[in-house]
Structure prediction request, 278 residues.
Amino acid sequence: MATLIDGKAISTQIKDELKEKVAQLKAEGTKVTLAVIQVGNDPASSVYVGNKKKACEYIGINSLAYELPEETTEEELLKLIGELNERADVNGILVQLPLPSHIDEDKVIRKIDPSKDVDGFHPQSVGALCIGQKGYVSCTPAGIIQLLKRSGIEIAGKECVVIGRSNIVGKPMALLLLRENGTVTVAHSRTKDLKEVTKRADILIVAVGKPKMITKDYVKEGAVVIDVGIHRGADNKLCGDVDFQDVEGVCSAITPVPGGVGPMTIAMLMSNCVESVL
Prediction:
């Protein structure tokens, strides 16, 4: 029976550690402030923003909320980011994605001062990760590394396969696994013989965006499976990219959906915020 990797418990552990750090910083006269910008009222985005606010409150981080109407222009958004860049009392800036179609996401990400880019999406942050320099790391991949480490799963020397090559998960995930001395393969929609590639993996990280696509045929006996996907099925239940019931009997450890990777993303965002003042 596979060990369940409990993202809720591990994220709480991280948030409790951060709470102590923030209390210590406050005692020394330093406040941590995160500015969160949401344009429009996409329901999923509203849930994420609400969770981020709750996490800030729990840890003791001051949060500034900018809830802008759907029709906000690109120019207005860039102006607000410019003002927040200049504010000495704002340590981190987060723009909730996706943005309405009339706003260029790339321009918005580039506008954020890299020293306040707590999401780790700015090209400078990504470049720093590529060459092993200090910088903010995209929160979901950083959270997955913590899930593995805090569950006692060795990465060094292991065959790691990442399915998915997005800028937010797949690519930074591969770089972080390399940093931990894993042997990394990135697979994607054009990979030939995908099952053969994934069956080599000691650690399989799935960020493919297709509900329950990964069945036990893709998984090596005893592998560790990390499921990044989140979907709502026809039965209104949440599921991941991995067919949990099918895979659970084959792997040695697996993340559930919900309660696996999701809580870690927010915990690592909070970690980046605290990092911004250290």
Remarks:
- The mean pLDDT is 96.
- The domain at 29-114 is CATH 3.40.50.10860 (Rossmann fold).
- The radius of gyration is 19 Å.
- The chain has two domains: 29-114, 139-262.
